[in-house]
Specification:
Shape: elongated
Helix content: over 70%
Mean pLDDT: 84
Strand content: under 5%
Order of helices and strands: HHH
Largest sheet: none
Number of helices: 3
Distance between the termini: 30 Å
Radius of gyration: 14 Å
């Protein structure tokens, strides 16, 4: 669980830094995306560990739509 918290914190930090460093924003947003994917992989592995199977397509779509909503709220 500590890894997941760290991944989410790093993602957030990169996105915040991108706002204040526009010249480096492309790099920082790419790094934020990397941390986001690491967090999703951690969630997926924990789910499989606990339930013994892969998450459903519905759960994956929900996580992607919530990530888009979060990105919109950060941008606006």
């Amino acid at each position: 669980m500590e890894d997941l918290v760290r991944y989410r914190a790093m993602e957030s930090l990169c996105r915040q830094r991108a706002v204040f460093h526009p010249l480096d924003s492309w790099r920082l947003l790419a790094e934020a995306e990397m941390w986001h994917h690491k967090a999703e992989e951690e969630i997926d592995s924990r789910f499989r560990e606990c339930n013994g199977n892969a998450p459903t397509a519905l759960a994956k779509r929900a996580s992607h739509s919530s990530a888009r909503d979060e990105n919109r709220s950060l941008a606006g």
